[in-house]
Fold:
Amino acid sequence: MIVVKPRVEVEGPIDGAAILRSIERVARTCYKSEDLACDGSAERLVAKLLSHDPPHLAMCDHVTIRAKFVVDRGITHEIVRHRIGVAYAQESTRYCNYSKGKFSEQITVIEPPGLTGGAREAWLTSVATAERCYLAMVANGASPQLARSVLPTCTKAELYVTASVTAWRHIFKLRTGKAAHPQMRQVMVPLVAFLAARCPILFDDIDHSEIVDPAEVVEVTS
Structure:
């Protein structure tokens, strides 16, 4: 059994200035004001779009950002509820056979934050039992898609999310607040902080204050 922490990989490079210029080009097409584009105009225009109540986000639909979440399957179940302006690809427990060598013949799980003492020991015992049962089922002829019935919710899942800036803003507003699941906040709060640092204006109004045990967020470029 492999125990890992959650992680987010953002597909880059993330060029905030280029993103703002792209949104500006789309917006100025509506008003045929392309001749007004100049140094600093993209920042001013996007800030104006977001200052409306409600914000004028249609122009932000034209820019997408892709991230890969490494989280437990319970969190993926919540993320994929967001359907508008979002595309998903997720690690499949139907087709991934964790008894095979490329998975080191063991399952990988995400440890919930804050477990200590007896609670953590109980969690470790539970996932170890699930792993033994999964491997025994496959060894006795069960297919991975049937053996997965004993896998715990904390089984590690890799989920690609490609979403428009508009969709990301909606996701962050729902998934970074105090009412969100602690493990959701573990990945969403550092992710919005990461993007806000690289994309001026677009995410500045979303709270990304520090949390306990935040997930690592890295930029991955080909």
Notes: The longest strand covers residues 64-72. The chain has a mean pLDDT of 95. Residues 82 and 171 are 7 Å apart (CA to CA). Strands lie at 2-4, 7-11, 64-72, 86-90, 108-110, 156-164, 216-220.
